[in-house]
Amino acid sequence: MLKEGDRIPDFCLRGVNEKGEEKEFCTRDLKGKKLVIYFYPKDNTPGCTTEACDFRDNMSILTEYGYQVIGISPDSINSHKKFKEKYHLNFVLLSDPQKKVAKLFGAYGEKKRCGKITEGIIRSTFLINEKGRVEKVWHNVKAKGHVQQILKSLKILKDESAK
After folding, report:
1. What are the residue ranges spanned by the domains of the chain?
2. Rounded mean pLDDT of the chain?
3. Which has the minimum average pLDDT: 16-20, 79-83, 94-98, 154-158?
4. For residue 115, what pLDDT band results from cuts at 50, 70 and 90?
């Protein structure tokens, strides 16, 4: 499980870019960029749609802070394309069908839902600096209001770096 200060693991996944074009994304191509990488269970479900639309609606603020958003789920690229199109999502969505990257980040495992323990994607977000290190981690997040948590942390980080 990744912790604050850890370097993100190397990985390559196929997905769709901001324009909805299919391509491969690798960590080596992301060096020097600040990222918000978030893992979510499934396209077009209520919580995942709420979270994705919150990222979409706050993209200008995230961009002001210099961050790009990448959403990762086990869904197919075709599912991602439809999800992006339906909700006009303006960020990258990557497909992790074997959940390999989710496991590397610690975003897959046992979770409790409705009193039942299952295995699956653990809704998690990682704030990554331009050096590829984790600045902040959120696990088991609630979809509604989570983007506001991220924005609050970005403001705090910016204020601290200005001192």
Report:
1. 12-162
2. 92
3. 154-158
4. confident
Torsion over CA of 146, 149, 150 and 155, rounded to 10 degrees?
A: 160
The Cα–Cα gap between 12 and 96 comes to: 10
The active-site residue, picked from 12, 26, 48, 53, is 48
- Give ∠ CA 112-118-124 in degrees, rounded to 5: 65
92: which 2 tokens?
A: 């990258």
For the full predicted model, state whether its pTM sits above 0.90: yes
Distances (CA, A) of 105 to 6, 10, 64, 101, 134: 10, 11, 26, 6, 10
Whether 127 shows a pLDDT value over 90: the answer reads: yes
Q: Determine whether 48 is an active site residue.
A: yes
* The CATH number, out of the four listed (3.30.1330.40, 2.120.10.80, 3.40.30.10, 1.10.630.10), of the domain defined by the range 12-162: 3.40.30.10
Encoded amino acid at 16, one letter: V
